[in-house]
Specification:
77 residues; alpha+beta; Ubiquitin-like (UB roll); five-stranded mixed β-sheet
Length: 77
């Protein structure tokens, strides 16, 4: 199975890339996707995650062909 992983805003600099492609053989949660793609990096606090453009919890399961995106917290004025 294969998924695309995207990083936005400051996370792109933190990770050093705007995207990854991951291949896996078993179901993964969003948290496990972060750990597999970024094993040596600490997850910044309050990072948001989405699967196929819908915000999700970190224990949500990712399926083959999904797009997972990570965002820094959104603020506005």
């Amino acid at each position: 199975m294969s998924i695309k992983v995207y990083y936005f805003a400051s996370l792109k600099e933190h990770v050093g890339s705007s995207e990854h492609e991951l291949d896996f053989t078993q179901s993964l949660t969003v948290n496990e996707v972060w750990l597999q793609a970024n094993a040596t990096l600490v997850l910044p606090k309050n990072t948001l995650a989405a699967i196929n453009m819908d915000y999700v919890d970190w224990d949500s399961l990712v399926s083959d062909g999904d797009v997972v995106a990570f965002f820094p917290p959104v603020t506005g004025g």
